Amino acid sequence: MTHAGDQPGFSTTIEALRIRTWLLGRGNPSKVIDRFTADDFNLIVDDRADAHVASKDGCFYLGWFPEGRPGDPDVGWVIAVTGTAAVHGYQASFSTETPAAVVAAAVEAVLATSRRV
Length: 117
Fold this sequence. Notes:
The protein has a 5-stranded antiparallel beta sheet with strand order 1-2-3-4-5, with no helix packed on it. The chain has helices at residues 14-17, 30-33, 100-112; strands at residues 41-45, 51-55, 60-64, 75-81, 90-95. Helices cover 18% and strands 24% of the residues. The protein is built from 3 helices and 5 strands, in the order H-H-E-E-E-E-E-H. The chain is of the alpha+beta class. 10% of the residues are buried.
C-alpha cells in the first residue's frame, strides 16, 4: 500500500479542478458610494463626474474615477487612510474594471477597523 505523501507532484480531486465563474465587469458603483452617510462623511461630485468621499475627520478618503484617474487612466478607485505621527497610513487602488462589489468589500473591511474616539 502506498501513501499519497510518498508520490511526487500533488493530489487533487476532479471537483477542485472544475472551471469556476468569476465576478467581472464594473457593476454598480452605488454598492460602494451608498455605504456612506452624510452624518460621518462628505461627498463631492466634481465636474468630471468623479466622486470623492471623505470622513469628517479627514482621515479616510475614497475616490471613484469612472473614466480613470487624471494622470493614471487605469485607476478607477482609490481608498486611503491617513496615518499618525507614529504609524504610516495606507492606500489601495483598483482598476476601472474592478467590480464594485469587490471594492465595496474592501471599503467595508477598512470601515470595520475604524472606531469613534
